[in-house]
């Protein structure tokens, strides 16, 4: 596992997308465009009414994993621990309604990164105790990417945790735009996680570049 400094860089521009998060391009084409443009990590999140199942689901995940390896970008799997292990993913991310984080850590061992969604100080502290390497904090603003999203938090929780010297890197997610990046990073986050702002952009490469241009840390 890399150092905390390296993980913070990995989390700088965290692209999240499944086959259902389509825009003008085929999702794997969108992913490759984003990889070429400079995303620092990718999470495959296959959820929703239009998501893939069975062999098509596995094939998409395997292809996405291969693309990430080709561009030397860490590959995370949302929720599906068995598939993450089968694909030798770099990390797993779980939400509060998914499998319990400490049980996930037991399954994946110490070498794979574990991310946990947190919407409160209590959830953030529990993630730390359960063995998380980073937390996803959100939603930052209202988002259409998750039907069951919590109420928007803005940068309040990130600032609160930073003031408490919370030790894990934090990533803001949910309705984040390039203009939000400076505020989010100054609040104490390591980076931002983005879904539709890249996946459904008319020009995904330009969208990535706009996010990257907002922080010297990227």
Distance between the termini: 20 Å
Backbone shape: globular
Q: If classified by CATH, what would the architecture be?
A: Alpha-Beta Barrel
The name of the CATH topology is: TIM Barrel
Structural class: alpha/beta
Low-confidence stretches: none
CATH C-level name: Alpha Beta
Q: What is the CATH H-level superfamily?
A: Aldolase class I
Alpha carbon gyration radius: 16 Å
The helix count comes to 10
Strand content: 15-25%
Binding site for 2-[(2R,5Z)-2-carboxy-4-methylthiazol-5(2H)-ylidene]ethyl phosphate: 143-145, 175, 195-196
GO cellular component, one term: cytoplasm
Binding site for 4-amino-2-methyl-5-(diphosphooxymethyl)pyrimidine: 43-47, 78, 117, 146
InterPro entries: Aldolase_TIM (IPR013785), ThiamineP_synth_sf (IPR036206), ThiamineP_synth_TenI (IPR022998), TMP_synthase (IPR034291)
Question: Can you put this structure into words, describing what you see?
Answer:
The protein is of the alpha/beta class and 218 residues long. The chain has one domain (4-212): TIM Barrel, CATH 3.20.20.70. It has ten helices and eight strands. The protein has helices spanning 4-10, 27-37, 54-70, 81-86, 101-108, 121-130, 156-163, 181-187, 196-199, 204-212, and strands at residues 13-17, 41-44, 75-78, 91-94, 113-118, 134-137, 170-173, 191-194. It is globular and about 45 Å long. The mean pLDDT is 94.
Describe the protein's topology.
Layout: H1 4-10, E1 13-17, H2 27-37, E2 41-44, H3 54-70, E3 75-78, H4 81-86, E4 91-94, H5 101-108, E5 113-118, H6 121-130, E6 134-137, H7 156-163, E7 170-173, H8 181-187, E8 191-194, H9 196-199, H10 204-212
Binding site for 2-[(2R,5Z)-2-carboxy-4-methylthiazol-5(2H)-ylidene]ethyl phosphate: 143-145, 175, 195-196
Binding site for 4-amino-2-methyl-5-(diphosphooxymethyl)pyrimidine: 43-47, 78, 117, 146
EC number: 2.5.1.3
């Amino acid at each position: 596992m890399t150092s905390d400094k390296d993980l913070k860089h990995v989390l700088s521009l965290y692209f999240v997308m499944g086959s259902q998060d389509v825009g003008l391009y085929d999702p794997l084409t969108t992913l490759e465009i984003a990889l070429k443009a400079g995303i620092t990590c990718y999470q495959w999140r296959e959820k929703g009414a239009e998501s893939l199942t069975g062999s098509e689901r596995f094939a998409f995940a395997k292809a996405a994993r291969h693309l990430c390896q080709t561009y030397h970008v860490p590959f995370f799997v949302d929720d599906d621990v068995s598939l993450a292990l089968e694909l030798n993913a770099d990390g797993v991310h779980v939400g509060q309604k998914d499998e319990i984080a400490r049980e996930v850590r037991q399954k994946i061992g110490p070498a794979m990164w574990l991310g946990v969604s947190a919407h409160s100080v209590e959830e953030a502290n529990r993630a730390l105790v359960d063995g998380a390497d980073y937390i996803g904090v959100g939603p930052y603003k209202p988002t259409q990417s998750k039907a069951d999203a919590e109420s928007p938090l803005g940068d309040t929780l990130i600032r609160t945790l930073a003031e408490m010297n919370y030790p894990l890197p934090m990533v803001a997610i949910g309705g984040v735009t390039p203009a939000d990046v400076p505020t989010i990073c100054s609040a104490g986050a390591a980076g931002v996680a983005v879904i539709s702002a890249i996946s459904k952009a008319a020009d995904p490469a330009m969208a990535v570049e706009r996010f990257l241009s907002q922080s010297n840390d990227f």
